[in-house]
Amino acid sequence: MTLDQLPARRRATITGIDWAALAPEEAKRLRALGIDVGAHVAIAHRGVFGGRDPIALLVGRMTLAVRRAHALAIQVQEA
Q: Signal sequence span per UniProt (predicted)?
């Protein structure tokens, strides 16, 4: 499943990322923040408007805001 489909507060492991679907600078930023294959993540909450952007993503002790378009490029497996 893709990250945008993960239910809130469920832990998952990133199993794949379609880096080609992201702009190079966005991919570089996500990697620098620890978003990569093998990382453990969970969704804290989603935005309430329209496309439910942004998504608050828990990575370790950090909370990051990612766009739904980014979440669509990230494959996860529930833990």
A: none
